[in-house]
Amino acid sequence: MLHIIARLRNSVQSLGSGSSSSSKIRSCFYFASRAYSSPQQTSEPIAYSRNFGEVDEYADVDWDNIGFGVLPTDYMYIMKCSKDENFEKGQLNPYGNVEISPAAGVLNYGQGLYEGTKAQRTGDGRLLLFRPDQNAIRMRQGAERLCMRAPSVDQFVDAVKQIARANKRWTPPPGKGSLYIRPLLMGSGPILGLAPAPEYTFLIFASPVGNYFKEGIAPLNLYVETEYDRASPGGAGGVKSITNYAPVLKAITRAKNRGFSDVLYLDSVNKKILEEVSSCNIFIVKNNVISTPSTAGTILSGITRKSVIEIARDHGYQVKERVIPVNELIEADEVFCTGTAVGVAPVGSITYQHKRVEFRVGGDQSVSSELYSTLVGIQTGVIEDKKGWIIGID
């Protein structure tokens, strides 16, 4: 059945969206996926077919124009537990819709977390994962904050490896992008009174992606937000809660309508201290010193952030995690952002209170280019991993 579903998906992609044949096949796939995607209907993990993956080395995708969006792959991973138990055994399922109670804690009270990591394809056909154990640790920290059960680090990493291997043909060729892997943890059990959900679901799906920003590798133009806050002291800004993201959509939409790439947020108390961009951390460079806001509860401790700090110190830079007044932007030589989705992205300008400040970008002499080259080199296997950050999958 799994092979039939996968081949149906290929047929759907090869047909025009307006044809009647395409509509029929899409309907067939939808019901087949629904019938086989419910974890309650399968007691044992579903084994994907290695032979099928070997026959179709690559999915039928225009790898030069994939952008950063959802492109359904073959499989997702699901694991469940009650609030009084630990996660035990998950399974691969065909990618499809999931059933959930309308009273689920995640729908009613936002009891949910997500993570993001990537698989890269090497020239010899292997897949490489970058520090998934750190995503697992961060999810467990977030789960503790939101009173949720969470998979162990080993369970998390094993599930990420399974989803990457099962969807290998959806991983872009070297240099064309990566397979973005999205682990979710949610209160799926029904709850009416405000309390932790009685059941939790750990789910992972994946999608091939290109550049996060529409500018590609071009420098970003940021807008300093002074009206809306991203997080406040004592809140959940330091964990990857789903509740952190919908509130920033209004500010992002407004900024993008004005021609900016994204929004840079200030502290919620005095609106004078740099915090982070909507989906990534920020760094400023002055001479040989790189500074980034310290993660003091309102800022997410990014895994790319942590890695770039270590790489920068290896390259001889002094890195300071500290409070950074917004006025220091005027004196910065260079600014860049880091994150799983964006990698290391140079910032060309920042606009604050109607004043635009431009920064050094491009060229082999820029700090962001130097750090980006090393980070991507390690992630893709071009540079030897001497830190134990890479997990290889055949």
UniProtKB/TrEMBL annotation:
Entry cofactors: pyridoxal 5'-phosphate
Organism superkingdom: Eukaryota
GO biological process: amino acid biosynthetic process; branched-chain amino acid biosynthetic process
CDD domains, per database record: BCAT_beta_family
Gene Ontology molecular function: branched-chain-amino-acid transaminase activity
Alphabetical list of Pfam families matching this protein: Aminotran_4
Family: Belongs to the class-IV pyridoxal-phosphate-dependent aminotransferase family.
Protein name, per record: Branched-chain-amino-acid aminotransferase
UniProt source species: Ficus carica
